[in-house]
Specification:
Layout lengths: L10 H7 L7 H8 L8 H11 L12 H7 L4 H15 L3 H35 L3 E6 L2 E6 L8 E5 L7 E13 L1 H4 L5 E2 L17 E2 L4 E13 L5 H10 L4
Antiparallel strand pairs: 1-2, 1-3, 3-7, 4-5, 4-6, 4-7
């Protein structure tokens, strides 16, 4: 069993991995406490517990009470609330009661519809979950993308998504579509080796990145960064940031 979960990379080591494409394969494997045969299932489980989910962003399901409260802060609902208060202040309790009933029915209807839509969306996302093939316990195992952890060794082929920011360990005619990150419409060739530390994304020929997919060929990749530490997550944060 490897020491991936028992002895996780220290902060200084994580800083070194920020430009992993410039490091020799042996050094990256040592920093990741991994080998070309991948991790054991136990190590992967502990690593995931320490790292958290591998998704770029995690939006937890809101509580029913929060969803219900949100139904009454829309402009139309606020107008109805104001009308109810005004009618009550003027002593017109019949109109106030009618408006209040309309307000409650509208809010409850919106709440039920939103809850049902959320359940349907969750079921759809579960049914189309992206999978990756990684080496676990010495064998290639199919896992959901969120279960991939740093130190995993992934096998990719045409049509597969890159399961994280990865170092290419070996490749056979491997080309990757990186248009989501670079805007380059033509696939780029990936192969093992090292690249200078300051190289731009499109110059990192020995690295694959989350958010890209394999066009042709096959390869073996070492997953170095996942989730919010990936290049894709950095771009997502920049796009979500409020402009100055």
């Amino acid at each position: 069993m490897t020491a991936a979960a028992d002895d996780p990379p220290e902060p200084g080591q994580r800083a070194s991995l920020a430009e992993f494409w410039s490091l020799p394969e042996e050094e990256v494997l040592a920093l990741m406490h991994s080998t070309r045969t991948g991790l054991s299932s136990a190590d992967a489980t502990r690593a995931r517990a320490g790292e958290g989910p591998s998704a770029v962003s995690q939006h937890g399901e809101q509580s029913p009470w929060r969803q219900l409260a949100r139904q009454f802060v829309t402009p139309i609902e606020l107008i109805l609330i104001a009308a109810t208060v005004l009618s009550g202040a003027l002593g017109d309790w019949t109109d106030a009661l009618i408006i209040l009933v309309i307000l409650l029915l509208s809010g409850m209807l919106g709440f039920v519809q939103e809850r049902n839509a959320g359940k349907v969306m969750t079921a759809l996302l579960t049914s189309v979950a992206i999978h990756a093939r990684v080496r676990r316990d010495g064998a290639v195992t199919d896992v959901v993308l969120d279960a991939v952890v740093p130190g995993d060794v992934a096998e990719v082929r045409a049509g597969d998504v890159i399961p994280g920011d990865c170092l290419v360990l070996s490749s056979t005619g491997l080309t990757v579509d990186e248009s989501a990150l670079t805007g380059e419409t033509f696939p780029v060739e990936k192969h093992e080796g090292t690249v200078t530390a300051g190289a731009s994304i499109d110059e990192r020929s020995n690295a694959g990145f989350l958010g890209t997919h394999v066009v042709s060929g096959s390869g073996t990749l070492l997953v170095v960064l996942t989730g919010r530490e990936t290049q894709l997550a950095g771009i997502t944060r920049q796009l979500a940031a409020r402009p100055p």
